[in-house]
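Regression check, tetrahydrodeoxyuridine case 130:
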Amino acid sequence: MNPDELLAQAREVAKRAYAPYSGFRVGAVVETDDGSRFSGVNVENSSYPEGWCAETSALAAAATAGYRTIRAVAVACIDAKDGTQTFPCGGCRQRLYEFGTDLVIVPGPEGGSEVYRLDDLLPHGFKLQS
Ligand code: THU
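Current build output:
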């Protein structure tokens, strides 16, 4: 897993975001346990609450392909002000947690990539007991 490479891919895919209402284009790339990658963008809607996040799109693509374990996710917003770090929202942290995501890669405040553990960003995530 190469954080810089994954983040560059997230930045590239963010160009295809559908974000006419917020103007905040986000791209996400998830890497699965066998190294496969799936990308996604945020998809907004004129009924605002019906839009969804880039991470959700990427996870849906991976799940649809049959994957159930995510090693890492890179998230990039190409419209964030310089130096402003953007992290996955709370709902996406929980969605990433569902698939055992270990690492979260975001742009650093001065460029480059920063790697976090999902466990640190979402302590005590929710799991159904069966
Ligand atoms: N957004 C994402 O795609 N991922 C996040 O983790 C946070 C927010 C999107 C949702 C919406 O389309 C736009 O950013 C502004 O909130």
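Comparison notes: The domain at 3-121 is CATH 3.40.140.10 (Cytidine Deaminase; domain 2). Strands lie at 26-32, 37-41, 70-77, 103-107, 113-117. No diff flagged against the previous build.
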